[in-house]
Every structure is written in C-alpha cells, then in structure tokens.
Amino acid sequence: MSTEISDALVVPSAQAHTGKGLGTGNPADAFVIEPARQRSKKTPRRTRTNFEMLAWLFMRLSGIVLVVLILGHLLIMLVLDGGVSKIGFAFVAGRWASPFWQVWDLTMLWLAMLHGANGMRQVINDYAEKDSTRLWLKGLMGTATVFTVLLGTLVIFTFDPNI
Amino acid sequence: MEKHSAALDAAEAGGTKLITVTVRIRRFNPEEHPDPVWVDYQLEMDPKERVLDALNKIKWEQDGTLTYRRSCAHGICGSDAMRINGRNRLACKTLLKDVNPEKPITIEAIKGLTVLKDLIVDMDPFFQAYKDVMPFLITKGNEPTRERLQSAEDRERFDDTTKCILCAACTSSCPVFWNDGQYFGPAAIVNAHRFIFDSRDEGAEQRLEILNDREGVWRCRTTFNCSEACPRGIEVTKAIQEVKRALVTRRF
Lengths: 163, 252
Prior knowledge:
heterodimer; A: mainly alpha; 3 helical TM bundles of succinate and fumarate reductases; 58% helix; B: alpha+beta; Ubiquitin-like (UB roll); Fumarate Reductase Iron-sulfur Protein, Chain B, domain 2; 2 domains; 5-stranded mixed sheet; two-stranded antiparallel ribbon; 9 helices; elongated
C-alpha cells in the first residue's frame, strides 16, 4: 500500500483549512466522498449458477495446459532447427498436414483466447464503474473473442496447402 | 519495522522523554468544501503513546472539530480503524514509535467507503455485506434439551475467524473492494467462514451458495492486503481460500 498523499493540499494546522465557504449550510447539501458501486440492501442479485466458480477453475486449469502448449510452441518456432529463419508457407503447411499439430494449435487458440477473455472480463468488472460501460466493453470484447476463435478454427480446418 | 533513532532508544530505556511529532491528517468537512485537505499538527508526545492518544490530544487541546470514532480504545470494539502511514491499522493498537515519528505520520479515513467527515466513513455497506452472509447459527429440527456440544478439534477448526471485531480494516484494504463496493469483502467472508466450518451449524450450504455468486469469493485476487491489515492477526486470505476449496469440493 502506497503512502503518497498527492491527491490533496497539505496545510499546517495554524492555517485556516476548512472554512472555504463553498457549502450552503443546509445539511441536505453536504458534500460526500463516495466510492464506486456501493452495496445496498438490494444489491446482491442471485444468479444461482456456478459460472464464477467454473470461470475461476478454468483459469487455473487452462493456465497449466497453456504453459506446456505455449512454451512448446515457442521452442519449435524460435529455437529448434534454425529458429525463425525456417518459418515459411511450406513450414506451416507441413506442420498442419499432421492432425497432431492441428489439435495442438486449435487447443492453444481456444484456451488462450478464452483465458485472455476471462482475464479481461475480470479487469472490466474491476475498473468499469457504470453498468452501461461494462456492458459495452464486455460486448466488444466478446465479439472480438468469438470472431478470432471462429476465424482461427476455420483456417486450421480448411487450410489447403495447394492454394 | 522502521529503524529506531538514538533519541527513541533513550526514550524506550528511560522514563518519559517527549519528542515532537507531526501528525498529518486528511481532513474533510462536508459542510464547507467538496475536497479533502491534509492538515499538519505539531505535538509533544511520548513515543510509547498510541496514535489514538495523539488524535485525542489534537482534539482536546488544538482543534475540537477533528472527528473520528473511538470507543473502548483497547483494540476490541473495532471503532478506530484508519489508514496510518498508508496502512490500515487500529489507532488504539499502534504506538507512535512503530510508525516512524520522525517523519509526518499520515492518518486518513479507510478507503472504499463513503467519507462523511474527517476520519468517519459510512459503515452501512460494510455491515450490509456482513448481514448478507447470515452471521448467526442456523439449525434444523428441534431444539436440543441441553447445550450444543462440540469437541475441542471441531472448535479449533474455525477458531481463527472467531477473532474478528468487524473494524473493516481488511475490507477497506482490499483493492477489489476499492473498485467495486458490491464485492462482499474479506470481513463478510471471514464471518461466513466462522459459521460454515462450525460443526453445530447447518446453514453452510446456504452461505456457500451466497458466496458462490458474482460478488462472492471468486472475486478475491489473493493480494494478501487483508491478512496484512487485520489488527487481530486473522489469516484472512487463508479463510477465503478455505471457503473456495469448500465450494469446489462440494460441487464436484
């Protein structure tokens, strides 16, 4: 936790510090410093699903699998057998001729996209204060995720080396 | 903690030796100005005194308008949780010598709750979250004709979370709570834990159901701010993880 105090003026106690006279004197007009999205008696809307738990578990499990998939991917692409210099159309075509690499890339695409999208969902939940902003950001992110996943899947399955 | 100076060591060894302390308080007057302001107060204090003593001295001798909550002044009532040098602590359990009195000691209201005046925040949302986890014994069937007995091991299971004094130091140190006040927060989860793992209680499933929801335990990001802030030394993050584990193992 930081100790910076830059958000407000610092004054000695001898100096007048409260009587700036912006108030009207009416208690109903009192200023408050309010945080975002407060809990009230009505707030918890029950959804009665395990979605949050499944999302949490998915993050852990997909993370473990992704470590293997992505490190393996990077190793093959960047280090082994000449590194990046070997990558070309022929190299990709050769790999995708094998169902093993198709499944590898497909799993990596789906897990990485869903893992990243779920992480972004948490970030949006944390930082978007207005419900409408949340809705828009999540909608935008969802659309982008679905588009990328579907396009990638389509390419992996319909890839034709004789193009 | 901070390194002690020679003057502080002398003060600790011998009788009372007063030092000059600067207390920098983030003051907010809702009737006068929409912005808070940091005000410096100079005091002659014994470094073995508490931060609460410094606040009392300011209020009684320098500026009677300074507003803060305190009740028992011995770390049990949980009224005087505040952010001292950027960390949530109880003013009545923090000695001046432990918060580096050579520099100005900053004191501000706990974060994430509406500031009403100076160090006073609106605790209603905090207690609403507490109420929402049903912090009372739930049983089925007829009342037993004698006490509800429990073995020492069963009592030990939730001993840590019975220590909570509801001071809100943990909840208001949680970055998830700062950004979204609808998160239940560590304190509510700790008090749910106290009943979920009580062998005499039969409402665990209901409480787990409540904490399984969108604003429940799954929002915890394990930053350990709550465990660090707790003036009672409760392992708050551990309690939250135990609730998570209970949810996962009961659902599968």
